[in-house]
Amino acid sequence: MTYHSRLKNEFVDELFEAVLLLEDIEECYRFFEDICTIKEIQALAQRLKVAKLLRQDKTYHEIEEKTGASTATISRINRCLQYGADGYNLILDRLEEDKTSSENE
């Protein structure tokens, strides 16, 4: 089944195509430091960490202490994990698979 995003347009397609061309973490740092503010990058990283901790069944209080995220942000991310486009779950599954395969090498 094909996913139909509400965000889809030519500009967003070009952005995502650019991200898919990045080859390693250094290239990601270079690109994201140019295209985003430091706060935007930190906010994205924080959201991913919150999602990871939610999947580990951490409490909102534990997540708030560990990440500094507000309970409103944690709640929004939790809704995305439960009812969203499945993007968090997709990438968190892949990160776990990558970590597992790296440990087994």
Explain the overall architecture.
The radius of gyration is 15 Å and the shape is globular. It has 105 residues and is mostly helical. It has helices spanning 10-20, 25-35, 38-55, 60-67, 71-83, 87-103.
What keyword list fits this structure?
mainly alpha, globular, single chain, 105 residues
Q: What order do the helices and strands come in, and which of them pair?
A:
Elements: H1 10-20, H2 25-35, H3 38-55, H4 60-67, H5 71-83, H6 87-103
Helix pairs in contact: 3-5
Summarize it.
This protein has 105 residues and is mostly helical. The chain contains six helices and no strands.
Radius of gyration: 15 Å
Reading the helices and strands in chain order gives HHHHHH
Q: Measure the end-to-end span.
A: 34 Å
Helix content: over 70%
User: Approximately what portion of the residues adopt beta-strand conformation?
Assistant: under 5%
How many helix segments?
6
Biggest sheet, open or closed, and with what strands and sense? none
Q: Which spans of ≥5 residues are poorly predicted at pLDDT below 50?
A: none
